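Hi both,

Apologies for the delay on this - the queue was longer than expected. I finally got the zinc ion-bound model through. Below you'll find the protein sequence and the ligand SMILES exactly as submitted, and right after that the structure tokens for the full complex including the ligand.
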Amino acid sequence: MSLEIATAAFVLRARPYGESDRIITLITETQGKVTGIAKGAKNSRRRFAGTLEPFVHVRTVFRQRPSSDLAFLVRCEFLGVFRRFTSDLERFAAGSYVLELTDRMVFGRESGREVYRLVADVLALLDAGTPTEPVLRAFELHLLAASGYAPALDRCRACGTPADGAERVYLSVARGGVLCRGCVPAGEAVRPIAGATAVELARLAAGPLAGTTARLSARTLVEAAAVAEHLLAAVTSGPLRSREFVARARVDSPETLR
Ligand SMILES: [Zn+2]
């Protein structure tokens, strides 16, 4: 008989499995990312009543089976829900992106409370109506750092010259940060970005998520989004479906497709 474990969690992903079961992926407070089977989820109001949905905060009880990577979900109790995601398309897109990116960046049980806390904080900020783009950039940078990929954006990776005051710096994914013009080796793949964008991204990475404000200009935000996408593409495989959805659902972007 395996031990039952209880922990708070957010649902990252739910897939139907067979006639009445569902496979659920959760980011938990104390157990990292857990994927488990919810037997009879479609019919069991008692064990899973309305909890196996995105943006619902739950207390999950599961058993880890020694012979399987898939946990057995015993039950999920409702703790709360962020309601705004179901009434605002831009926020729904941003929140869906947060969940998908977390699922893609976190492997198994290795993540600590930090990632769970990060997801809880960013969902709360988005639900409270905070402008989505700066919050998403801060989230991406914090998640990269929590995953061991914190980029060095405030100064040249090679010589230490501050990005502040530089008109342009050169992003090198291979070196995990930016280089000044003089330090870019011939033939190295780099992406030129405004020094001001690198400084703003470094500020978002260093500051608390809750302190994220819309101080960034529209132009900086567009470039910052491209830089973050570039950094994430280096450590995730394949496109994130919800990222394009965020761009299309945005109401305040010059790139909006409406
Ligand atoms: Zn340099």
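Main takeaway for now: Residues 89-105 form the longest helix (17 residues).

I'll put the files on the shared drive as well.

H.
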